[in-house]
């Protein structure tokens, strides 16, 4: 069974800091990996999707990388802002269009 | 684009009642997913459809749960009879094709008393 793990479960940083969120997966036969953001009481907002043939994707202050051989993906957030405070989830896509989600990292950026 | 639309946003019902959740995927998307999110179990895939056909329903917890997709623009998730342990947030998501980026709806918060 594919497992996706996110550590730490919670992270608190001061505004302006660069930070890295981690996502690890047990099965390297991953097709895609997608990063989401979830605000309290809201749905999931897609941030970045990395295809298995890619190593990274960038959008604004966000950069996500994928290393299939080590079973890891990272989400880098540059110059963090209080508005970045949310829960960040990663999801790995395996066969038959089935995404497996991590339990998320709750980020708090302090002003 | 209006995004994925779900209704109702909140549902409170008594144990034993039938509950129907509704979803309208993004126009042109041919894959639709139903998820359930709880504090204890996180986000779980219940069922997904491709071109209106159920492909994998292995995540549906019990026979009390059923899902349909009568056409490309509408899907329902039904719980009959509902139980307190079904209380959760139910999300619908859609994507353009297999393996592409998923877009989530705002969710339906279900409370069964």
Q: Which properties best describe this structure?
A:
heterodimer; A: mainly beta; 6-stranded mixed β-sheet; 11 strands; B: mainly beta; 7-stranded mixed β-sheet
Question: What do you see in this structure?
Answer:
Chain A is mainly β and 111 residues long. Chain A contains no helices and eleven strands. In chain A, the strands form two sheets. In chain A, strands 2, 4, 5, 9, 10 and 11 form a six-stranded mixed beta sheet that branches. Chain A starts with a strand and ends with a strand. The mean pLDDT of chain A is 92. Chain B contains no helices and eleven strands. In chain B, the strands form two sheets. In chain B, strands 2, 4, 5, 6, 9, 10 and 11 form a seven-stranded mixed beta sheet that branches. A four-stranded antiparallel beta sheet of chain B has the order 1-3-8-7, with no helix packed on it. In chain B, strand 7 and strand 8 form a beta hairpin. The interface between A and B is medium-sized, with 21 and 22 residues.
